[in-house]
Amino acid sequence: MSVTIFLCVHSVAAWSDDSYSRDDLYGTELTDKPFPEDGISDLNRLNDNETLRLGAFNIQVFGKSKASKPDVMEVLGKIIRTYDVVAIQEIRDKSQTALPSLVDVVNANSSTPYDYVVSERLGRTSSKEQYAYIYNNQTVTLTYTPHTYPEPNGTDPFHREPYIASFRVLDGNFDATLITIHADPNEATEEINALDDVVKYAQSTYPDERDFIVMGDLNADCKYFDEDSNSIMHGSDYYWCINNSVDTTTKSTDCTYDRIIITNPAVPDFTGDADVFRFDLEYGLTVGKTTAVSDHYPVYAEFWCGRDADPSPAPEVVDAVIALQIAVGSREYDPELDVNDDGRATSLDALMILQAAVDAIEIC
User: Fold this and answer.
1) What is the reported pLDDT for 189?
2) What is the pLDDT at residue 182?
């Protein structure tokens, strides 16, 4: 028997009810949710080991200029720490220094370390953008290798090809493949419809996965997209967690540009909690300080950690992955995974964990 572990490790820092309706395929009817009057914000729900908060955030022309503003970076760091995994759009930085600086800010005030993965620079013109996933490596682990969607030969459906990454929770059985995109506003309808092909590609690439989540700035409203259209993504295979009633813009516009769309098998894992994160209200920001951060609010959706019906890898495989993360320094030492009791967890411990699992199977 052979066991293969897919692990991507980067040396740089990488609430609820079940009140959805399957008859409302465009998302739950969310009411306006004021922040708690007792001063306890939703942020304290993070890392409760029962739910996982996933999100998407267009941080608007993020490069060296924005990274040089400490007040803006501080707010961005606070926002990112409210998520277990957040997909970032509109990174524009030839120097490739702004994103590592942002993750450093995130980690400077975090009790748990965040890592990230980032795409290549994408776009048909000289103005390139990158996507990134920033994630809490104490609550989730990255599985497989993130990659951009390989457009079929002879086609060019996306100005910036979607970026695909898979994650699973460390305390529970929920896993999902995430697909993030910043749709070109002038081609939003065409690109949104083409996302169905991306999902089908991901389904064929990861046949054991059933939960696929499209997230990002789809420009899916106002003059760019008819949100009441008969889009392919409005079909019966999809559920829109962020519905048409939500304003995801920080300026005077009222548009639901940013979305989180899940495939139907992921619906039972969805807690029903999805919305924009009003960081201006949470942090008491003026309009000027808010728009200095971004012209978009981040969006989020929460998922149950322990109710996933997908086939799950053996616990030993998860333990081996964690041991490898400890070995490269991206996770704190855990004596339970120090199999040979030498005071450290190494790749040898990971192999010993897997070998013990194989031996147990052979004995049975």
Assistant:
1) 97
2) 98
